[in-house]
């Protein structure tokens, strides 16, 4: 090695690269079969009519009042659950990671969040109906022991806010799981340096911690939005067709009812892909910015 040259970097041998490709091939096959290929299929179908002829009619139909309303309701439900999940999840993650609680609480919290973030669909809808439905156990106990009926206040589980509340069950744990590593990345030296310079806790969070965490907070909130926007089983099991959200409308168009139009369903799915793809792209970009400080 010549004087002044950098250290030699070991490059993987051809055989090692081949074995690595074999190891990752199941993921590549899975992604192609269940992500790329179906996406290409529905993109093509969105520009075809029932006879297979090219048309822009399906995209034009997306601007019908009922479809625009479905997209808007889905966006509002996703925003409500994402913002609520981000706020509660942030304080819960802060308490578990930096709150000085007993050591057993954090692993217990993370284990629960790992399970709860994947608990969705029909089981989650049934759990909320059995708990907060009109004959749910919590509703009955409140009436029996406190003479208080939550439905007399205007609350309705089978409504916009009821669905947003149900989504919080998996949105909050997801926020905790993603944000906990970001909180761990806040270096102790930053707080110590701030205290030496006379900063209190408010100044530390205002000028140091929150600016560093802001890309992670915003990016995770966007990810929660995309997570709720694509949910269907929970909404369908909880509200049926009483709440006009885009995933239920898409399900009706694909599976068939009196309004059955499969190609319109493909166009609906294409619109959802564009919205969730844009959201996930923002999340990846914001996360990369945050990781520059948290490494």
From TrEMBL:
Q: Which UniProt keywords apply?
A: Cell membrane, Membrane, Transmembrane, Transmembrane helix, Transport
Among Pfam families, the record links this protein to:
BPD_transp_1
Q: Does the keyword Nucleotide-binding apply?
A: no
| Gene Ontology biological process terms in this record | transmembrane transport
Q: Which domain of life is it from?
A: Bacteria
Query: Where, subcellularly, is it found?
Result: Cell membrane
The residue ranges crossing the membrane are: 20-44, 77-105, 125-146, 158-183, 203-226, 233-254, 266-286
One GO cellular component term of this record is: plasma membrane
InterPro entries reported in the protein's UniProt record: MetI-like, MetI-like_sf
Gene3D superfamilies assigned:
MetI-like (1.10.3720.10)
Q: Does the keyword Membrane apply?
A: yes
Protein's membrane topology:
Multi-pass membrane protein
**Record domain ABC transmembrane type-1: where:** 71-283
Which first-to-last residue range defines the signal peptide?
Answer: none
Q: Which family does it belong to?
A: Belongs to the binding-protein-dependent transport system permease family. CysTW subfamily.
What this protein is called in its record is ABC transporter
Q: Identify the species of origin.
A: Hypericibacter adhaerens
**Organismal lineage:** Bacteria, Pseudomonadati, Pseudomonadota, Alphaproteobacteria, Rhodospirillales
């Amino acid at each position: 090695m010549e004087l002044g040259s950098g250290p030699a970097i070991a490059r993987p041998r051809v055989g090692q690269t081949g074995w690595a490709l074999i190891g990752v091939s199941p993921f590549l096959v899975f992604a192609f079969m269940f992500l790329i290929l179906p996406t290409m299929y529905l993109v093509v179908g969105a520009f075809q009519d029932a006879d297979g002829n090219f048309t822009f009619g399906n995209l034009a139909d997306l601007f019908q009042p009922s479809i625009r309303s479905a997209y808007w309701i889905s966006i509002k439900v996703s925003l409500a659950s994402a913002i609520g999940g981000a706020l509660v999840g942030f304080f819960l993650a802060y308490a578990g990671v930096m709150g000085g609680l007993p050591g057993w609480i954090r692993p217990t919290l993370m284990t629960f969040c790992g399970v709860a973030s994947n608990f969705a669909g029909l089981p989650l809808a049934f759990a909320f109906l059995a708990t907060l439905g009109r004959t749910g156990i919590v509703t009955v106990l409140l009436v029996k022991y406190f003479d208080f009926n939550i439905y007399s206040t205007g609350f309705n589980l089978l409504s916009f806010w009821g669905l947003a509340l149900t989504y919080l069950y998996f949105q909050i744990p997801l926020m905790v799981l993603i944000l906990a590593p970001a909180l761990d990345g806040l270096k102790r030296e930053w707080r110590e340096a701030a205290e030496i310079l006379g900063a209190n806790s408010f100044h530390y969070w205002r000028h140091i911690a929150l600016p560093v965490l802001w890309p992670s907070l915003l990016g995770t909130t966007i990810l929660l939005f995309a997570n709720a926007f694509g949910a269907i089983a929970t909404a369908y099991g909880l509200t049926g067709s009483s709440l006009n959200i885009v995933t239920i409308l898409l399900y009706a168009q694909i599976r068939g009812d009196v309004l059955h139009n499969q190609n319109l369903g493909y166009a609906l799915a294409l619109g959802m892909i564009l919205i969730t793809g844009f959201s996930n792209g923002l999340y990846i970009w914001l996360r990369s910015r945050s990781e520059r400080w948290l490494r």
